[in-house]
Specification:
The structure is a single chain. The chain is an alpha/beta fold. The chain contains 18 helices and 21 strands. Among the domains are: 92 residues, no CATH class; 184 residues, no CATH class. The radius of gyration is 30 Å and the shape is elongated.
């Protein structure tokens, strides 16, 4: 996006080694630099303390008040098609430097989020749409490093009790510590999850179709193309019922972006199959299968191996027989697991009542509803265990579960539903042009770029003077040597020198070495005690 200017021969002052030019013209300026920045770039997309950030080069940028900042190789954040809002310079540098922050970009939602629970070290629950933006993406985006409770995976069959420890999710895609050990833990019982998964698998294969996680789009565009089209003036922009933005093209068709994320590959049917596969593998490795386990194993083996989803394949009576038998077994097992987890009595009636109240008012719960309520209960108990453990940073679950559990976790663990997450309480628009969001933005940007140019010009002047003036030595008393170190005619900029130069309108980062003659010219040594 930016063509680099010819690299300047490194100056001993190291104030400027490779700078962009300060004025837009095709002749070199007084210092011999050209400005060949792409005129197409007129927006700056990083905001720090409500001030726009101006590009300097691939590793540096400028913001009024903070001066030069390090981009840690993320200079493209300043010029891409997203808006990022930072509370201060340090937060930006932490995020760019892959250190934990409380903010981040939810790309598919087109939102910049801020979750202060992270910085406040308060464990919380977040509701999500698995097919749009999941907890794994959020944790990665915000560079969070602690343990996470996630909906993916399930506890081993019949192992959960009131005092059992949370089980690590060792799946390949689970979040890991740098050592490779999983930092993601499961929150569900296997039988109730398998019961719900069986229904998704059944519907997907019986109907010979995939179950969409959001309305199927007739037209998909890659991220960059979609953003460019979405941001054009007078485009008809909309948000669907799932919170996902799209636009209407000239043919009246809805156009969505595709991002190539793991969440986009989520599908209830295939996800259900993976849970059933886990259950089958657990039963298969047993040398002795008791009670209903042999029948469940037979049904699972048939569904997982003999019946394979194909375009145009039909769900036969044989598959229906195995499905019906397995469903009956899982209903019993699901109730038994919930009872074990509660310590003796099936406690899920209140969770079932909440489900009906929120999802099916006036209707009666069926077996699948009861199984879903048992999933809610298992998640509830796991969330409380994670809070008690003290080293978990969050729990991520489907928003339907979060909505159900908000009542039960009130006063114990904060629950942020998806609707709340996408609201102004936690998120900002990150894809509408800033010139549309804020009429003052263009003026603010122009002001910042003037300040940046003044900063660069001052730095260039310092560099030029250092290269042409003879180096003069001055006597610095012993008491000042700790404050101003003189080495080969240069001093290292420290906080005091930086503040002194700043009063003169010169911004120089701490740690940069400048020839002593420059400080002599400014009268610095006349103003410090000898």
């Amino acid at each position: 996006m930016y063509e680099q200017v010819k690299k300047m021969k490194e100056n001993k002052s190291k104030v400027v080694t490779n700078s962009v030019a300060l004025k837009k013209h095709k002749e070199p300026d007084a210092f011999g630099f050209f400005d060949n920045r792409n005129d197409k770039i007129v927006q700056r997309k990083v905001i720090i303390e409500d001030k726009p950030v101006a590009f300097i080069d691939d590793n540096k940028a400028f913001v009024e008040g903070a001066g030069e900042i390090s981009t840690n190789g993320k200079a493209d954040w300043i010029t891409d098609d997203y808006v990022r809002f930072y509370e201060n310079k340090q937060e930006f540098e932490n995020h760019a430097g892959e250190k934990p922050v409380e903010c981040g970009l939810a790309r598919k939602y087109g939102k910049w989020y801020r979750l202060k629970k992270f910085s406040e070290k308060e464990f919380f629950v977040l509701g999500e749409n698995h097919g749009v933006f999941g907890y794994r993406e959020l944790i990665t985006e915000s560079n969070q490093t602690g343990k996470v409770l996630g909906e993916s995976g399930a506890n081993s069959l019949m192992t959960s009790t009131p005092t059992s420890k949370l089980e690590a999710n060792n799946a390949h895609e689970a979040l890991k510590f740098p050592s490779g050990i999983s930092r993601e833990y499961t929150m569900e019982n296997l039988a109730s999850k398998a019961l719900y998964s069986l229904e998704a698998f059944y519907l997907s294969n019986k109907n010979n179709t995939e179950i969409p996680t959001h309305p199927p789009a007739k037209i998909l565009e890659d991220e960059s193309t979609w953003l460019s089209n979405y941001q054009k003036p007078l485009v008809d922009r909309k948000v669907d019922n799932y919170g996902v933005p799209y636009y209407i093209n000239s043919a009246g068709e809805a156009v969505y972006a595709t991002y190539g994320t793991a969440a986009e590959n989520y599908n209830p049917g295939s996800s259900g199959a993976s849970v059933l596969q886990k259950l089958w593998m657990e039963l298969d490795k047993k040398t002795v299968r008791t009670n209903a386990e042999p029948e469940a194993w037979t049904c699972l083996k048939h569904l997982m191996t003999k019946y394979k989803y194909k375009k145009g394949a039909k769900w036969s009576e044989n598959e229906q027989k195995h499905y019906t038998k397995l469903k009956s077994i899982l209903i019993d097992w699901s109730t038994q697991e919930a009872t074990n987890m509660a310590g003796g009595i099936d406690p899920t009636q209140q969770f079932e009542d909440e489900l009906i109240k929120k999802d099916k008012p006036g209707k009666t719960a069926n077996a699948i509803d009861k199984g879903f309520a048992q999933r809610d209960f298992a998640m509830y108990k796991s969330v409380l265990k994670a809070k008690e453990a003290g080293d978990f940073i969050m729990a991520g679950m489907g928003d339907r579960h979060a909505e159900h559990l908000k009542k039960f976790l009130e006063g114990q663990v904060p629950v942020i539903t998806l609707t709340e997450f996408l609201s102004s309480s936690y998120s900002k628009d990150a894809i509408t042009l800033l010139t549309e969001q804020n009429s003052q933005f263009s003026k603010d940007l122009a002001k910042t770029e003037v300040k940046r140019d003044e900063y660069l010009k001052a730095a260039l002047q310092l560099a030029a003077q250092a290269s042409v003036q003879p180096v003069r030595y001055v006597n610095i008393s012993q008491s000042n040597q700790a404050e101003v170190q003189a080495k080969q005619g240069q001093v290292i900029i420290n906080e005091k020198i930086k503040n002194y130069l700043k009063l003169l309108g010169v911004f120089v980062p701490i740690g940069v070495s400048v020839a002593v003659v420059l400080l002599i010219k400014t009268g610095y040594f006349d103003n410090i005690k000898s």
